[in-house]
What we know:
Order of helices and strands: EHEHEHEEEHH
Shape: globular
Strand content: 15-25%
Structural class: alpha/beta
Amino acid sequence: MRKLETKTIVVASHNAGKIAEIADLIGPFGFSAKSAKELNFIEPEETGTTFEDNAAIKALASAKASGLPALSDDSGLVIDALEGAPGVYTANWAERPDGSRDFAMAMDKVEKALAEKGALTPEARTARFVSVLCLAWPDGHTEMFRGEVEGVIAPAPRGTAGFGYDPIFQPEGHDRTFGEMTSEEKHGWKPGQPQALSHRARAFKIFVETCLDA
């Protein structure tokens, strides 16, 4: 495993919600970071068939464009009754013909797909959020960190916090969705704590323990 020896990195994302969450996670560790969006980097086409593939595509593009280490995230919602969909195509389910993303539409699409499967009880609506972080260097070296959180799909969106599919994902052991949780509740984590709640925070915890002297 290669250690990260600089605190200056690029957050390889154009997604405002994702950029904000990663900024919250890396901030306490003293990083100086700008996003690929801020730097006006071209958003690479995500042609991979796994979260790892797409995370690497994004991180390597930003690392090579900037000459700095870059940290990316590829994440998605995996629903058992839908045979793993939307999975790596989680963002695609929200795309409109004009290229914009409408997650209210995407959540409605999820509910309709589950209804078609007859998945109406919590036991039939099991799902997990998956996050794969990729840290890439300009020389092409990469390190991967995967985090998952189990839960169920709520029957209707609840809450306005977070982003994406957060209002319909209810993590295991909780009676609220991610959309009803504060940022600190969802992914707050510090060294010495046994676990974080969100998939992204769990992946970040592995990143910290692997690549940082924290």
